[in-house]
Amino acid sequence: MTSEDLSATQVPASTSLANRYGGQKRAMTRKTKRNIIIGALVIGIGFAAYVATGSAQAPVTFKDVGYSTVDGTQAEADYQVTKYPGATAKCAVKALDSKFAVVGWKVVEIGPNDPQDDPDGGSTTAQRTVLRTESPAVSAVVDSCWIVDSGK
User: Fold this and answer.
1) Exposed, middle or buried, 127 (CB in 10 Å: 0-12/13-18/19+)?
2) Residues paired with 126 in a beta bridge
3) Which DSSP symbol is given to 123?
């Protein structure tokens, strides 16, 4: 055996393992742990603020009360809309025939409420919408309602 063969086989085991698998991992410092915790708290507080401000804009809800058909070309839908009194909403109202096909459709704007006109503080108002129909309707209902952006 030559001296080159001996030096190659006599490499310390720790150096050989470090070359193969990498060096020892350093533990996280106290400062790094603190920064991770602070970052997680900031993200959590930001998410909580986002959720809180998103629910501050209360959604609009509706309840169908009834309907009537005036004749083969006209139907009326009676419903209640509940929303923040100062908000403006739009509701899509539809008339349906006996096969549930839409035979009349109208989007109605519901402006801010006068709180003195309603015992619950002006959040619920009764609405009646007259719809033109292309054939006789057997029902009239609210399809959906949404809050209109005040910026328009």
Assistant:
1) middle
2) 80
3) -
Rounded-to-integer distance, Cα 130 and Cα 77, Å: 7
pLDDT of 64 over the 60 cut = yes
Claim: this prediction has a pTM higher than 0.90: no
State how far the alpha carbon of 145 is from the alpha carbons of 34, 130, 132, 149, 152, in Å.
Answer: 47, 17, 20, 13, 17
Neighbours of 93 (CB within 10 A): 27
Token digits of residue 80 = 């209640």
Which residue from 67, 69, 134, 59 is spatially nearest to 91, judged by alpha carbons? 59
Give the whole-angstrom CA distance, residue 132 versus residue 136.
10
Which alpha helices (H) appear in the chain, and where do they start and end? 3-9, 13-21, 30-56
